[in-house]
Design brief:
The longest helix has 19 residues, at about 5-20. It is built from eleven helices and eight strands. It folds into two domains: about 1-80, no CATH class; about 85-255, ANL, N-terminal domain (Rossmann fold, 3-Layer(aba) Sandwich). By secondary structure, it is an alpha/beta fold.
């Protein structure tokens, strides 16, 4: 087992007694049991063990992969719930099975554009399935996703995107004009992905990327893709690095907080 994995597990185990005594922990567990139902929880855990190969890992700790645990837990849940509705956004509805397929496809699509673990891709989206799909796909392939505020002015948006240094930007078609106005000033963005029906020359439609990519499970390097930027009440919006701090106990590639 690598020193990083060992340290992460030790720190997590040390914190467990205090975490388990917290009232909030018991409240969260009770809510999860009510929402997921006991028999589904058992099925999810058994499916996770099957997918992870956890028993085999214990016989050879040198082959143990910490970052297989979290993604296989999520994937197991998506598989167990299957046809249950997962997302309702405007007139669109998606089951857990469809969410799983679209997340896999998007993850493969982002990897086909050259994104590797720890590379960032930013989002500038309204509420919708594309936001959740992007977040889950980024988490599976180990790519943090800066959350950008579409209320920001051109100057703020340009500075924040350059600070975040994403290789790709996913944004809603209603924001095409503002992105075109700052496109030449964005130093690291190589791919512009548009959610909607139209994409200017040199940009990619989100659904085209989805339709052209594989639905097989992408190469997984789990990290929690959570990377919001503050609203800028005390100056230029700032990076809140959750993708390392929260996922340090679950990921082989997260940095120590």
């Amino acid at each position: 087992m690598s020193e990083k994995v060992e340290k992460s597990l030790v720190n997590t185990l040390k914190a467990l007694p205090d975490l388990l005594r917290m009232e909030q922990t018991w409240g969260l567990l009770a809510t999860l049991v009510r929402q997921l139902e006991s028999e589904n929880i058992v099925s999810i855990l058994l499916n996770k063990v099957r997918r992870t190969g956890f028993v085999n890992s214990l016989t050879s700790l040198s082959n143990f992969k910490l970052n297989k645990i979290a993604p296989n837990l999520f994937i197991s849940m998506w598989e167990i719930f299957g046809e249950r509705e997962a997302i309702i956004t405007e007139d669109k509805k998606f089951t857990w099975k469809e969410v799983k397929e679209r997340v896999f496809i998007l993850g493969n699509g982002l990897q086909s554009l050259g994104l590797k673990p720890k590379n960032k891709f930013a989002e500038l989206l309204y509420n919708g399935n594309e936001f959740l799909e992007s977040f889950l796909a980024g988490s599976l392939i180990g790519c943090p996703m800066p959350f950008l505020n579409w209320h920001m002015r051109e100057e703020e948006l340009t500075e924040v995107i350059n600070r975040a240094s994403p290789k790709a930007l996913i944004f809603d078609e209603e924001l095409i004009e503002i992105i075109l106005s700052i496109k030449d000033r964005l130093k690291t963005v190589e791919h512009f992905i548009v959610v909607g029906e139209r994409a200017p020359e040199g940009m990619i439609l989100y659904e085209d990327l989805i339709s052209k990519s594989s639905d097989e499970m992408p190469n997984t390097e789990f990290i929690l893709a959570l990377n919001p930027y503050t609203a800028g009440t005390t100056g230029v919006p700032k990076n809140v690095n959750y993708f390392d701090t929260f996922s340090y106990a679950l990921s082989d590639i997260a940095e120590a907080p």
